[in-house]
Amino acid sequence: MIEASHIDALKAMLGEKGLLTAAADMAAYETGARYDKGRAAFVARPASTEETSAVVAYCVTNGIALIPQSGNTGLVSGSTPDGSGTQGVLSLDRLTAPFELDRVNRTVKTGAGLRLSDLNGKLEESGLFFPIDLGADPRLGGMIATNTGGSRFLRYGDVRRNTLGLTVVLADAAGTVLDLSSDLRKNNTGIDWKQLFIGTSGAFGIVTECVLNLEPVPKQSATALLVPASAEQVATLLVAMEDALGSYLSAFEGMSGNAVRAALDHVPSLRNPFQGGIVPDYVILAEISRSSPPREGEQPLDAALEEVLAAIWERADAPLTDAFVGPPHEIWTLRHALSEGVKHSGRLIAFDLSFRRGDVMPFLDHMKAEMPEHFEDVTICDFGHIGDGGVHFNLVVAKDDPRLADPDFEADLRDWVFTAAVEQFDGSFSAEHAIGRKNQGFYDRYTPEKIRALAAGLKVLTSPGPLGTTTF
């Protein structure tokens, strides 16, 4: 708990809507997307950069720790308070202004609290969109703090590639506001300071506004579900698709049979697209797209996709055993249902890993072979972005499994998975969810001492006050 005088001071800055202290009002801000739950001293909800600055300055001056929280959709306990009741949550949910679209420049300046779906809804009439495709619906500030990638990274890149400028509040005694809100795509006049705040978990400052690159909404698309001949042939299939389709290839998503079955079981309205209803052990969702409308005499994309798949089918190395070309909306609905399906199939222990593209399937094969020996009755329900090497490595344990009462069980499981991913396959323990409490120990273990010292120095320089859950 903190002193009542601090609550009164913050309420005077933010008003009744801007500061929450009742337990019922704070509950949603104290609970994360993956079982983590803490206790907040208060929830501050500033509606502008100026209010954010005032709150941060007050809290730093009075030694009150703040946890920035965006959409609260992360997996690593990076956006919720601990159980002490002494940390305040600073929510971005009212930071939805401004909204300044530059159609010619293909940019938008907007508030960091705007949800991804709301942003793209506002952009619909312009024919543009922010090209980060996710199953969740986060707020922009959190996407920037974690450098989100998503399903179409292959075509459009990550948030870092699509962020041109930021406005940031530093956790110092002045609540310093840094205006880094350039809308230039080329500006090589010094250090690109915005990069310091992208993908660094909010520890160096709180993003309140952003300038984003926009892309034309695809006017044509075609999708297919592909069944590779074997795990070893997935990389061959990816390269063959890229060679044949070039920049038209916008997604190459891997889905394990376990994850697909979990989605079909959880969402009865989903159509099972596989022959006889038999879900393969592994499936690839491939998408090709064009941003231009169809032209007379131009080959339709679904025909182009079928032609390429037929040619791959006939190759001597035969990397493909089956393919289902189907409506994009239907196929993507299945892909986006995976996360919730897996979550509802048992107690979920989720990992967000990254590898060289050619190491994704060897890693998965290794874990499938070794898991029963180390952790029996743990089901692997993986899916991910094979085109960029990202894997959502989900492990499901029966909800009544007595091991879940032992905190060492999950700790040992995480340690075993991360050791294999990093030490045996030279991968990353966090592809796009950043660090947070769940990954702090692995950051400390796998980050070289010199790099940790540099990061800690930057933290002191930018935001010396207690900010966020990540310790650099």
In short:
The protein contains 15 helices and 19 strands.
CATH topology of the largest domain: Alpha-Beta Plaits
- What low-confidence regions span 5 or more consecutive residues with pLDDT below 50? none
* SS summary, helix count: 15
Q: How much helicity do the residues have? A: 25-40%
In terms of DSSP E residues, the strand content is 15-25%
Which word captures the global form?
A: globular
Q: State the domain count.
A: 4
Secondary-structure-based class equals alpha+beta
Number of strands: 19
Mean pLDDT: 95
Distance between the termini: 26 Å
Radius of gyration: 23 Å
Oligomeric assembly = single chain
Class of the largest domain in CATH?
Alpha Beta
Largest sheet: 8 strands, antiparallel
In the CATH hierarchy, what is the architecture of the largest domain at level 2? Answer: 2-Layer Sandwich
Q: What brief labels describe this structure?
A:
472 residues, Uridine Diphospho-n-acetylenolpyruvylglucosamine Reductase, domain 2, Uridine Diphospho-n-acetylenolpyruvylglucosamine Reductase, domain 3, Alpha-Beta Plaits, 8-stranded antiparallel β-sheet, globular
Could you give the topology of this structure?
Blueprint: H1 4-18, E1 19-20, H2 23-30, E2 40-44, H3 49-61, E3 66-69, E4 87-91, E5 99-102, E6 107-111, H4 116-123, E7 128-129, H5 140-146, H6 153-156, E8 163-169, E9 177-180, E10 206-213, E11 215-216, E12 220-228, H7 234-245, E13 249-256, H8 257-266, E14 282-290, H9 301-313, E15 320-326, H10 328-336, H11 338-343, E16 347-354, H12 360-374, E17 379-380, E18 383-385, E19 390-397, H13 407-424, H14 436-446, H15 449-462
Parallel strand pairs: 2-4, 3-4
Antiparallel strand pairs: 1-2, 5-6, 6-10, 7-11, 8-9, 8-10, 12-14, 12-15, 13-14, 13-18, 16-19, 17-19, 18-19
